[in-house]
Each structure stands twice: as C-alpha cells, then as structure tokens.
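User: Second chain of the day. Same drill as before.
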Amino acid sequence: MKELIRETVTQAIVASEHNWSDSLQGRYYDAPLVQFAAGDDPIFTEFKRIIGPWHKTPQEAYEAGHGDGSWHGGTVVSWVMPWSRGLRDCNRACTEHPSVEWTKAYHVASKLLQKQVRAVLLQELQRCGVRGVAPADAGWFSIMDAPDGKTSPWSERHIGYAAGLGSFGLNNAFISGKGMAVVLNSVVIDAVLEPDRRAAAHHRADCLHFTTGGCGACIRRCPVQAISPQGHDKNRCMRFGYGPESVLLAKERGVEGPAGCALCQVGVPCEYRNPSTHRAAH
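Assistant: Same format as last time:
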C-alpha cells in the first residue's frame, strides 16, 4: 500500500500537464518525497498547544468529512514537492521580488497541481477500499488571523514534521531531505500503515543557525528584513509576499492571486538538501 501511494503521488506530480514551464523548458516540481505518520500519534494533539486549539487532529479532519464516529484509526500521508533546478536557479537570481517563473509556479501549485494530486491519490485509494480526506480541500479549511500572524486549522509544515520529512528553519520554512525549496501536501486515510520515524531530535534540528550558531543566509536573502537572528516576522513576510502590492505584481505577470516570494528558500545551504545530514556525512 505504501509503495502504491508513493508511485501514485509521484506520477500525479511529474506527469501532470500543469507541471510544465515553457520558459524553463522543464518541470516546475520534481519527484516528491512521501512519508507516513500514525493517525493517533500524540504529536497531533500537541499541535493544538503549539499552533492553537483550532488545529485539527487527523481524527477530527477525517470525521469532518465522513461523520462522527467514522474514524477507527488510520494514517497521515505527507509529501514534499521539490522545486526543479530551473525554478530554483531563476528565483535565486532575484533579490527584490520573486521571478516571473516562480510566481507562475506558485499559482500552478496552489490553484491546480496540489489539488489535482490530492484528488488522484484519494481516487486511487478508494478503488482499493480505502477512504480518506484532503484537509486543504475541505470546507472547514481557511487561512485565519492569529496573534502572531496568519494560521490555519491544518499546517502542512507541521504535518510534514510529524511524518518525519524534516524540521523548521530560522525563517519558519521547512527543511526536508530535498531541502527547503519545496511545497508540502497531505491527506488523511483510514488504512493503518507503518509510520516513518522522526529522525530530527527537535523541531529546529536541521537548521544550521540553531545547530552551529552561524549561517543566517536566509536573513540576507529576505528583501523586507522579515527574518532576524531572533526569528521570523510572519506579518511582515505575509504583507510582502501575499498583500495588495503582491497581488498587483502577479496581475502584471498575467497571474491571478499573489506573486509569492520564497526568496529565502534559495541561495541558502538548505536550498536543495538537508545541511545537517550533509554535515554528518562528511
């Protein structure tokens, strides 16, 4: 079952008609990393304290779609879609705004590709008698205001951490085995599968700033000083990447929605690999 899931997600990403850039002459996103978390892992309850009481557990997400009492255990499937080298190269060359290609890639991922991959996976599993839900597509999902900035009832980054895909950087982006230049996704299913181990000792374990006291490359990459040695100013970051001026920039580029940013996810040691793993191997 796990191999079927990995193959289905991979093919849905790499073969999608949406996952192609004429200007890059290649894909926006490469083959994913897919991992699994137990649906009853206590960490999901802990997220209600870390993120907020509004964050749903896998059981709550599943029962919101299939009814109270429908959950009898299951698995959270989480995956990262790594940016292609061409996409990383063009955004790395930018310093004030994201590249045109990245704005288009962000639009493709958020509006088309991610939803398509989730739907394809759930349809394939349904043929095998497995039911599931895609929290990001649920009617209860929304981006909400919280005291420290925007939040949601289902954080793909935290779900990725629970599944052992990586940990968090100084800029609050997610450092996976394919680096930080990735997009995260997940579904909850009612099949009980063997979970993957969380290799990270803690939620900052793969960030060089926290493990060596140095680096800070993402600080220098941010065009609006939203990152400092003290952490990430989520509100300033969101205003720049997703506010009215960003929406206007996207419109000028022929894209509906914000232009995004993610400049701090390239031109850094964790761009396309986990730097802590790399250091350990050498």
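Strands lie at 33-38, 75-82, 132-133, 144-146, 149-151, 166-168, 174-176, 182-189, 227-228, 231-232.

User: Great, on to the next one.
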